[in-house]
Each structure stands twice: as structure tokens, then as C-alpha cells.
From TrEMBL, chains A, B:
<dbReference type="InterPro" id="IPR050147">
    <property type="entry name" value="Ser/Thr_Dehydratase"/>
</dbReference>
<protein>
    <submittedName>
        <fullName>Threonine synthase</fullName>
        <ecNumber>4.2.3.1</ecNumber>
    </submittedName>
</protein>
<feature type="domain" description="Tryptophan synthase beta chain-like PALP">
    <location>
        <begin position="42"/>
        <end position="347"/>
    </location>
</feature>
<dbReference type="InterPro" id="IPR036052">
    <property type="entry name" value="TrpB-like_PALP_sf"/>
</dbReference>
<keyword id="KW-0456">Lyase</keyword>
<dbReference type="GO" id="GO:0004795">
    <property type="term" value="F:threonine synthase activity"/>
</dbReference>
<dbReference type="InterPro" id="IPR001926">
    <property type="entry name" value="TrpB-like_PALP"/>
</dbReference>
<keyword id="KW-0663">Pyridoxal phosphate</keyword>
<dbReference type="Pfam" id="PF00291">
    <property type="entry name" value="PALP"/>
</dbReference>
Length: 381, 381
């Protein structure tokens, strides 16, 4: 599923300075994206998010550099916009009419928005305890929205069971190449924003893990083109205790020796709660290869980090706050050295996660057979 | 209060192409901003928001061009970030330790965030029916947050009454030069994003009206520098029926002949509800000068526009949706011609305006004397 580019030919045609004359969206990196026809691009203004130096936090934590990558400033308020801009563009090129996604929330609202922009039908299935604001967002963008009595992989099963009968394209994690390629632009952007000098450490909140895959792929491609030099950043996954398959797999040394999975997830209903990441083994091996690590933080750590970022003027999602808590822990443990520089990803903003019940609650389903009559009757109008 | 620049000297030193080598925030227009020392800049990554062409809406409304300027992608989720980035930078330069603002919501959360970033104290006072999410945001950023039993001008009176005793700087609309200058970057940015060719019409939702003033000032400056040619855009104010002082003043032809004001505001609790805009006369005369107009739309118009934008993948605030409703009305009436191009401002996103009660409700006060003991006791901790 990882797209191969002719990097030699890109290096021969594009110079770093050429990028400056392009717009600020992620499509400035068009040569590194799999959408060949510019007319197929489905864009809502994604990418080009700020990389904010946290001067006061550098002093507090005694570190040379710490930045927050403000992915909450994307359309739909999360980093998921990048992946779905690329994925929906590819689906449009292929003439797909209906796309479906199992999601903890932000992927659902991103598919909903990009499908709306493309004039495509979207079907999204989220857990029963998905934050109400995100459900409202999916409905606002016109998606067929359902809740599953279960977790994200249960939602995925419903889509797999119904896709043939309904003609849905399953746009779930690693089901198609666009989402990883779109997320890859986060890595390209960090490199450009830091003057093509990468940080020592990148801290990323991890559910399915395609963010880690995207960052790693960006740096591989830039290195192959000789646009960057030296060591790649150590990539760090942060998860919430109670659903930490990546952390567990790294500790157990089990990469490549079986599925990376957690049983009985007890963590909060956020993007971090992915008990069975579809490509967990790849994520674990990337982290190992870069000399990175994985950290599990508690709900209380997340709450404290959210407060700390808030008092710096930044609204962070629980996932982004978890990454910040991971930074604090690794700095305090000395794993991040005083002379190093770290980039921490804030993947969404706090507002989406408040305790609020959507005005029109979607139906809760267990199986495709539950969903089918509801969906078909709504489609008939 | 309007800052004068040596535009000849800017034109002599800066070329359009120079801007390309700068970052994407509003500070790429540093020469047009009143902050002289780069070390004083208080930034959270504001500006550089997408200008999104609405192809499907061009077809639906039969118009050459219609764009949405996505100001909701700013820090704090609204256009107010630009004004407060500039204002708080200036206050920091002056050594101000405590800033206060009367606000319908988004100005309060923007001051709160930028003051937090600057290590400054913020005091914000919003109406009793201010959306709960915005109140929560102010608290998250650490501002002293109060609700007034009244409207925005009642909040302003409390700040005026207390500012001497408490050492507050009143950062209300047109009390200092930074906010207009920051908003001016919206105009500079549109010009640059459209290749220095301005649209025929710009539609802006109007409360206090400093957005209109900022846009107008941007175009004046660019024209004086010969960076743009031809007619300036017709500027359009959109307000909600029930609080429409700008609309009324334009219809009555009263500009310059007394205060622009509405009595007994009955419109919704949004940024549009400013019964007594501090510089209403200037706003009205700018609209006249550009051949623009002002439109009052209903709650139902706003709801419909919000739905229409949502189904295009855009989350709009009631203010942004009001502007879109104004576009629809003016296009349908033929005031915007088929061969013309319009830019519509979406100033914030929908999530902030849901019906939700903040976890910790701030105290409701009527006068400075009500607020004083609460504030002083909280400051003592």
C-alpha cells in the first residue's frame, strides 16, 4: 500500500526554492502525492499548519527546542484532513461514488467533509461513546452516520460485511494509499519549516499509527533525494494506558512475531483507542529503526498536559495533550537531552471532546444486518 | 487610532516576491504592522488561512467566482486571533501587565490566548448568554472570566470603571491600534492569494465593524504603493435582523450625523450583536465610499446558510453563515453580477456556538462594584 515515487526524477525537476512560489496547502508537495491530475484534487485548505516554538516551555523543561505542530488548524479541526484530502482525491479519480470509514471520530468527520466537497456519498461508523461534537460534525457534512455497539474494529467489520452489497469503498486505515500519503505531508512540512534540518525527536499520539508511517516515509523520501542529511528523528508513539498495543509490543520485543493488539481496551474514547492497529508491526519496526520509543500516559497525565498547554494559549485534544505528556515524561527521564529539539503533534482541539449529546443521535447498530434497513431507507429518502 | 506607515519606503524596500520567502503567518506582512521589534511579536500561528474557491456554489448561484475565506482555521478558531496577535504584541512592547476586553465571545478567547502566550494577565467580560464553549475557552487560557448582566457595551462600561483602580489596559474595539492593524492582514492576504487582483465584492459579517475598517485600510495602502490597480472591492456588511445599526444607518443616510446605534437588540448572542459600534460612522462611510451595501438576514437565513456550507464540507459560525446568506441574497437580487467575483468571510466555526453549559460557570456581574471583590479575591488566590 505504500506508494513508490520516482524520487530521482522529482529531485531533477523540483528545487527547494520552487516550493516557495506555491500555495501554502499540502498540495505544494504535489510531486510527492499520488494524485496525478490537478483537476482531481479535492481540497478544503488542508496543511500549512503552524509549527510553534514554545519558548516558555523550553525554559520550564530545560531543553534546547520544543515545538508544537498545530494540526488542529486544519479543516475539520484535525490532522485527519490531510489523509482524506489525498484519499478522496484518489477515489474521485477512480470514480468511486460511496466511501465508508470506521473511525474513533476525526477520521469520520474528515471523510464526511471531503466527500461532501467531492459530491460523493459518505458512510461513517463510530463507537457509541464517540464525542457528540464529532458526531454532529459528521451530520453537518451530510454523512450517513451510525454508532456501533463496540469499538473501531467492530465498525470496520460492519463496513467489510456491507461493502459489496452497497458498493462502498472501505477507506479505513491502510485500506488505500491516500491516507498515509496525505499524512506524509506533515513530515515534509516540518522539514521545510525547520529549514530542512530535522528535529532530534518527534512525538506523535498513536492510534492506528499511520501518522508514524507517514512521517517515516516523508523522511525516507527526503533522504533519498538528499534534501536532508544526518540521522532521522527518533519517532515516539504516545498512547493512553488501557489501550497500548504499540507500547506493549515494543516492550515485549514482539515485532514481526504476531499481531500487535490489546485486549479489553479501557482507555478513553479518543483517537488513541485502537486495540488492533491494522499495521501495528510496521509501526513498531519503524519506531525501533529510528531509535525511538513508546510511552503510555494516564488520563490524569493527559488532563494536566491539557491544562499546561491551555495556559500557553493552545487548545489541545486529549491525543495532543497525551503527546505533550509524553514529551514531559521523556524529558524528565533524560531520554530527551537538554541540547535536543523535539516536535510534539497536537492533532486536534479540545472543543470537540466536551461531554455533549448531539441534537439528533444516530442509530446504534451491532451488525451490518442492523444497519442495512436503516441505511437503505434513508437513501430512499 | 489608524496607524500611518511610510508606504513609499515600504514600496522601495519590499518586493512582492520577497513575501514568498517568508513564513505563512500574518507576520509575513511585518512592514505593514506596527510592531517594530521582532522580539515583541506574540504569535500563536495566526493568518495564512485558506481562500477556498467554491466551484459547486459558483454553478448553483451562477457567478464567475465565489470564495470562502476560512478564518476559522486561525488559532482560537476565529479571525479575532489576528487582531489580538498585533494588539498583545504592542501591549507587551509597552510593558502592559493586565489587559481587559468586553466581548461577545471570540475577542475574549483571543485575548485570553494571546495574553497567556505573552505571560500577561487577561480579564474578559462577555454577555450572560455568550456560548458556553467560548467561555470554557477563556477559562482554559487562564483569563479572569466574567459574564455581564447586559450586552457588550455594558461589559465595556465595567472595564472603563475599573481600569484605573486595577491597572487594566482596555483592549476593546478601537481603543488601541493593534486590532485593526491585525485584521488588515486579511485584506493583504486576499490580495496576495488572488495574485494581486482584488475581487469585485467582499462580504463581511459585521458587529463592531473593525474588520471592514481593516480590509479598507489594507486596500488603501496597497493602492498607494501601486501594488494593486483599478476599483477597490465593494464592501458589504451583513448583520442579523434585530441588531442592525450599520444597515439602518446606511438606509437612513445618517452617516456623520450622529451615533450609529440600535436600541433593544433582539438578535442572537453572536459577534454580530453590537448595538453601538464604537466607530459605526467610519464603517458606514467606508461602505458608501466603496459603493458597497449592508444587508440584514434572519435567524432562519443563517440556519439555511449554515446547512448549505456544511454540505460543502465547511463548518461555519452563525456570523460566517450570515455572510454567506448575504451573498446569496445579493446574488439573487442581481446586486452581484454573474461576471463578478465575491469573497465571503467565514469568521469562526460552528462548534463554538452549540447550546452547552460550561463546566464552571463564571460569576454574573452588573457593575464594576460587583466584579471588584470577586476579581481581587481570585487574584489573591
Amino acid at each position: 500500500m505504500l506508494v513508490k515515487y520516482d524520487l530521482e526524477s522529482i529531485a531533477a525537476t523540483v528545487k527547494k526554492a520552487d516550493l516557495l512560489t506555491r500555495g501554502n496547502s499540502m498540495w505544494r508537495y504535489a510531486e510527492w502525492l499520488p494524485v496525478s491530475d490537478p483537476a482531481s484534487v479535492v481540497s478544503l485548505g488542508e496543511g500549512g499548519t503552524p509549527l510553534l516554538r514554545m519558548d516558555a516551555m523550553q525554559r520550564r523543561y530545560g531543553v534546547q527546542g520544543v515545538y508544537v505542530k498545530r494540526e488542529e488548524q486544519n479543516p475539520t479541526g484535525s490532522f485527519k484532513a490531510r489523509g482524506f484530502a489525498a484519499a478522496v482525491s484518489l477515489l474521485k479519480e477512480k470514480g468511486v461514488a460511496k466511501a465508508a470509514v470506521p473511525s474513533n471520530g476525526n477520521a469520520a468527520s474528515a471523510l464526511a467533509a471531503y466527500a461532501a466537497r467531492a459530491g460523493m456519498e459518505a458512510v461513517v461508523i463510530v463507537p457509541g461513546d464517540c464525542p457528540g461534537m464529532i458526531i454532529e460534525e459528521c451530520i453537518r457534512y451530510g454523512a450517513h452516520t451510525y454508532q456501533v455497539d463496540g469499538l473501531i474494529h467492530d465498525a470496520g467489520r460492519i463496513i467489510e460485511d456491507g461493502k459489496q452489497e452497497q458498493g462502498w469503498f472501505n477507506a479505513g486505515t491502510l485500506r488505500e494509499p491516500g491516507r498515509v500519503e496525505g499524512k506524509k505531508t506533515m513530515g515534509l512540512e516540518i522539514a521545510e519549516q525547520l529549514g530542512w534540518k530535522l528535529p532530534d525527536v518527534i512525538i506523535y499520539p498513536t492510534g492506528g499509527g499511520s501518522g508514524i508511517i507517514g512521517l517515516w516515509k516523508a523522511f525516507q523520501e527526503l533522504r533519498e533525494m538528499n534534501w536532508i542529511e544526518g540521522e532521522l528523528p527518533r519517532l515516539v508513539s504516545v498512547q493512553e494506558a488501557g489501550c497500548q498495543p504499540i507500547v506493549d509490543a515494543l516492550q515485549a520485543g514482539s515485532a514481526g512475531e504476531g499481531a500487535v493488539a490489546s485486549e479489553n481496551a479501557t482507555s478513553s474514547p479518543t483517537g488513541l483507542r485502537v486495540p488492533k492497529p491494522p499495521d501495528g508491526n510496521l509501526v513498531v519496526s519503524i519506531i525501533r529503526e529510528t531509535g525511538g520509543t513508546a510511552v503510555a500516559v494516564s488520563k490524569e497525565d493527559i488532563r494536566r498536559a491539557q491544562t499546561e498547554l491551555g495556559l500557553q494559549g493552545i487548545s489541545s485534544s486529549p491525543e495532543g495533550a497525551a503527546a505533550w505528556a509524553g514529551f514531559a515524561r521523556l524529558r524528565e527521564a533524560g531520554w530527551i537531552k537538554p541540547a535536543e529539539t523535539a516536535v510534539v503533534f497536537n492533532t486536534s482541539h479540545a472543543d470537540k471532546y466536551i461531554d455533549w449529546i448531539p441534537r439528533v443521535a444516530p442509530a446504534v447498530v451491532r451488525t451490518y444486518n442492523d444497519l442495512k434497513p436503516l441505511y437503505e431507507s434513508r437513501r430512499r429518502g
